């Protein structure tokens, strides 16, 4: 499902509970708890991502020694905002049709592209900036208009944050109105999983107040 992502065109020490094996929707958690997206079960990778990995093998490489969650320091938040803002402004939004023309695929840093190109470009640049690839996962979502969309999810010590070409804001995943369908695997960037939801107590993560800051701040 959604191997063809019809991207919207806009300018721009706790017990873990896993729910909703086929999709995850934002919901209210226990008071003081932070919701994280969970990889529930293996699923098919988007076909265009398979082709992307053939074209850009280094962007699909995995290092199990890397951390899978980054500290959300002020400098990291500033980097996320800068990359999100710059890529959103540099790539002109277009609707791409993926079909028999094999020249059309997910592309890093094109002059014009769709949500897939924005997402893979942001991931590429953040890896170049020194963030661990395991903490940077592409994710397929469904918008309220029932349109397939691709975003970049950054796993931090303050929760999972979303970089999206439809907004300059860095938001926590539960502050979006998306239905979360599948996500790139932490263990192997070529593989994908169905999405679930897990609840972590604040003791498991550091300084949860910064999660609200990241969710609310917009790029200036």
From TrEMBL:
Q: Which InterPro entries match?
A: Transglutaminase-like_Cys_pept (IPR010319)
Q: Which residues form the signal peptide?
A: 1-23
Entry-linked Gene3D superfamilies:
3.10.620.30
**Per UniProt, which keywords does this protein have?**
Signal
- What's this protein's name? Transglutaminase-like cysteine peptidase
Question: Whose protein is this, by species?
Answer: Rhodopseudomonas palustris (strain ATCC BAA-98 / CGA009)
Its taxonomic path starts at: Bacteria, Pseudomonadati, Pseudomonadota, Alphaproteobacteria, Hyphomicrobiales
């Amino acid at each position: 499902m959604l191997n063809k992502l019809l991207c919207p065109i806009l300018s721009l020490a706790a017990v873990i509970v896993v729910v909703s094996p086929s999709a995850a929707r934002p919901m209210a958690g226990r008071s003081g708890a932070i919701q994280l997206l969970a990889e529930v079960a293996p699923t098919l990778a988007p076909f265009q991502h398979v082709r992307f990995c053939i074209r850009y093998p280094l962007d699909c490489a995995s290092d199990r020694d890397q951390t899978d969650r980054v500290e959300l320091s002020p400098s990291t938040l500033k980097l996320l905002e800068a990359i999100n803002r710059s890529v959103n402004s540099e790539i002109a939004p277009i609707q791409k049709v993926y079909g028999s023309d094999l020249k059309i695929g997910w592309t890093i840093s094109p002059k014009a592209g769709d949500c897939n190109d924005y997402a893979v470009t942001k991931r590429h640049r953040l890896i170049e900036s020194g963030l661990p690839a395991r903490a940077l996962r592409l994710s397929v979502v469904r918008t309220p208009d029932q349109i397939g969309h691709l975003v970049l999810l950054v796993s931090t010590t303050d929760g999972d944050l979303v970089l999206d070409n439809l907004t300059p804001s860095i938001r926590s995943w539960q502050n979006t109105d998306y239905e979360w369908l599948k996500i790139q695997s932490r263990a192997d960037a070529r593989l994908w999983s169905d999405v679930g939801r897990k609840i972590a107590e604040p003791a498991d993560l550091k300084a949860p107040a910064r999660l609200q800051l990241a969710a609310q701040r917009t790029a200036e």
